[in-house]
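Subject: Sanity check before I submit

Could someone independently write out the structure tokens for this chain? I want to compare against mine line by line before I put it in a report. The sequence has 383 residues.
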Amino acid sequence: MNNRKLRGGMIGGGIGAFIGPVHRMAAIMDGEAEFVAGCFSSNPEKSRKSGEALYLDPTRVYSDWKEMILAESAQPAESRLDFISIVTPTASHYAIAKMVLEAGFNIICDKPMTLTLKEAKSLRDMVKKSGKIFALTHNYTGYPMVKEARVMVSEEKLGKINKIVVEYPQGWLASLLTGKAADLGIWRMDPKQAGASCCIADIGIHAENLARYITGLEVDSLCADLLGFIPGNKLDDDGSVLLRYKGGAKGILYASQISTGEENGLNIRVYGSKAGICWNQENPNYLFYTPLNGPTQKLSRGNSYNSQIAKDFTRIPFGHPEGFIEAFANLYLEAFKAIRALAGKKKVKVDVPTVEDGIMGLRFIETVLKSHKSSKKWTKLLS
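---
Independent answer below. Compare away.
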């Protein structure tokens, strides 16, 4: 395996999808892997055309994901897949991942990991039993300056963390505020495909994950208020959450898909007793650091003063922007490192979200929903 590219398969992500092409670009960016098989849609014709567009062997392009897993598990060693990327709507993640693990393949899965916390815990047991690699694409942890922020917190450059403010405003659903959800055809607004939440499950967990990754702090309890502003929407498209962290820090998390004029404004501010930091996903190459009683410093990616981990996840010199695809690719690189180490029966430390992060995401989603419905509001994070 160490003298060749890893062979990948994909379930979902066909023509017209956003996240499927992102996964494919990220996976092949550094020459570590190639996709050789896939079931790209539940629509057989769409899956076939997607395979043609990717110049795949038509015998390895499938119209049914179960058929794909069975057929690919029967491939000889010289052509067998090393991993399968799951990029379907959330409702199918659990069933697909279960069969993929039983067939002996490693997994890179889009978030949320599963539809429910119960499914997430069951999947964790399967991953442990299988011994396979399971990577979850909380891709914002792949940015070099997010890693720089994490190092600064771990080295206590901020002192004791007192306040975390994390926001994820989008406006892509704002145009539907005067429309009817029944006419939308958006799977994230369909409880059968997305589960009990739209906004919090889609982007709110990214905000929670980012705050936890940078600070290392875990939510103790929260107070949530969710709304579905879009007429007829059965799920939330906006949410505000007050957070109490273990250790005493307080937080505010705001996620919205109806914030008119916003694009993809994920940003975080962390305030400690010694300093504060600020990072914005739409301008990701910079991290702002403000020491107590001192001027704000603009730290940029690709410099000699960066921490080693930030350097390790940087591809090009400063002044040449790196962004979303590169951050995604960093997660794939770490997953590939783990897959190669597993095949060689070696131990290696990697920096990639795992099944445990998937469980934390579902704990957060279900606690937010429980708090929103409760008259008491403040709710302990579900275990």
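---
OP: Matches mine. For the report I'm noting this point. The two ends are 39 Å apart (CA to CA).
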